From TrEMBL:
Any single GO CC term annotated in Swiss-Prot or TrEMBL for this entry: plasma membrane
Key words of the record: Cell membrane, Membrane, Transmembrane, Transmembrane helix
Membrane topology, as annotated: Multi-pass membrane protein
Compartments in which it is found: Cell membrane
Source species: Companilactobacillus suantsaicola
Protein name from the UniProt record: Amino acid transporter
Lineage: Bacteria, Bacillati, Bacillota, Bacilli, Lactobacillales
Length: 204
């Protein structure tokens, strides 16, 4: 139980800071139908759990060994993130859950995937945090620990969606438009930061 609780608390510590995934879940909870927002939250959690497992077992070490792979993820990740942020910033907000705002299932899933897996900083940070715990655990405790991390991820994103969706009716179109612009601007800045990291790494 102690190992499971360590994984659970570590999972919450990783998810709590506001980042791309949280912004994506918040925006979907505010602008999409309830059903579609839960789909988005579920797939964010699903891809996040997959990434946590990969980090736990050393994907960060692979990125460090193959510099070209890290460069490729930084470049494509930054461009895609900036593109998504730009679309969100420019999007016109209409009635929540209308056909004009509803994302297709493919776009919902693919965006969730990109937000999680095309973020090299999240991969590196996750590898450092989870990898550090791995060396302190017996092999028999690996599955217990990562189960705690997975439960934390699922609980966090579904819970975040639930809370935001519950109060979204209190926001009018103008407020949602402002939220879209703020989220879009933050995502664009995050993408530019990733591109800056790519340039610095390329120069050195």
């Amino acid at each position: 139980m102690n190992i499971f609780l360590q994984g659970l608390t570590m999972g919450f510590a990783i998810e709590a800071p506001i980042g791309l995934a949280n912004l994506f879940v918040i925006n979907n909870a505010l602008t999409q139908s309830r059903k579609r927002s839960y789909v988005a939250a579920f797939f964010v959690a699903f891809f996040d759990i997959a990434l946590s497992v990969a980090c736990f077992f050393g994907i960060g070490a692979i990125m460090k060994r193959f510099e070209w792979l890290k460069l490729a993820i930084l470049l494509f990740g930054s461009l895609i993130v900036v593109y998504m942020g730009t679309n969100l910033f420019r999007a016109e907000t209409t009635e929540i859950g209308s056909k004009d705002t509803e994302l297709t299932m493919f776009k919902t899933i693919s965006t969730a995937f990109v937000m999680i897996w095309f973020n090299p900083q999240a991969i590196i940070d996750g590898s450092l945090m989870l990898g550090a715990f791995q060396v302190t655990l017996p092999v028999s405790g690996y599955s217990i620990f990562i189960s705690g991390v997975a439960l934390a991820s699922l609980t966090w994103f579904i819970g975040l969606n639930l809370v935001i969706a519950k109060f979204k009716d209190k926001f009018n179109a103008r407020v949602l438009r402002i939220i879209n612009m703020v989220c879009g601007a933050v995502i664009i800045l995050y993408g530019l930061k990733l591109f800056y990291n790519f340039v610095i790494l390329l120069i050195h």
